[in-house]
Amino acid sequence: MKFLLAIYVAGAALALWRTDASWPTRIVLALLWPIGPVAFLITVAILVGASLVAFPLVAGGIAALVAAAVWWLVR
């Protein structure tokens, strides 16, 4: 938990230092900066899910490769 808090404080300090905005805007950006990486992860997850529907042959090929790798590692 201390590690995550240290990352948050470092990001907040960086946002306060490097943002070219007024102080109220800087403070809001420093408090809300973790939303960006979370939004990125959600977007990537949605795109991966959509690609499974849009390209089922590719998804099937990847699933077959993963299954073969698991079988080879477990046996």
Question: How would you portray this structure in words?
Answer:
The protein is an all-alpha fold and 75 residues long. The protein has four helices and no strands. Helix 1 packs antiparallel against helix 2. It is elongated, with a radius of gyration of 20 Å. The protein starts with a helix and ends with a helix. The model has no long low-confidence stretch (mean pLDDT 87).
Helix/strand/pairing category: mainly alpha
Strand segment tally: 0
**Global outline:** elongated
User: What letter string, H or E per element, gives the SSE order?
Assistant: HHHH
Radius of gyration: 20 Å
Helix content range of the residues, please? over 70%
The biggest sheet amounts to: none
Number of helices: 4
Quote the beta fraction. under 5%
Key features?
75 residues, mainly alpha
Topology:
Elements: H1 2-18, H2 23-32, H3 35-54, H4 56-74
Helix pairs in contact: 1-2
Structure in a nutshell:
The chain is mainly α and 75 residues long. The protein has helices spanning 2-18, 23-32, 35-54, 56-74. Helix 1 runs antiparallel to helix 2.
